[in-house]
Amino acid sequence: MNTSISGVDPGTVDRLIPVPQAARLLAVHISTIRRWIRQGKLPAYRVGDKGVRVRYDDLMQLLTPLEIEQEDRVRADNRSPRPDRLTDEERHHARAAVASARTLQDEFRARYGTMSPESWEVLNESRIERTASLSGATEE
Fold this sequence. Notes:
By secondary structure, the chain is mainly alpha-helical. The chain is built from 6 helices and 3 strands; from the N terminus they run βααββαααα. A 3-stranded antiparallel beta sheet has the order 1-3-2.
């Protein structure tokens, strides 16, 4: 006598879970579970006319440990909050680049003057004008 129902062992019928619960268990969207069923990655079983269930064991087989290469694992273990320190040569080069940029900026200002006001100046002017126009509108 065949006791299996649609290829499911009767002992595991109590381990069938609905699709929404399966999605919650894996912290994925319901449509992801349905897509896995459609793609054949996850076997599913129809219960009644509309119900679809998946076996808990089949769901757990989808979980695989993340394989991290040895180099990445060492890098992750030794990760520090600060980036690697600059060498003396790199530090010297960076300081020279900043000094050169400041010199160029000063030369530009001496030759052409300030091309545009600082942004905070423009914002303050706009705020003062807006406040004046709103004050004038409420007094009328």
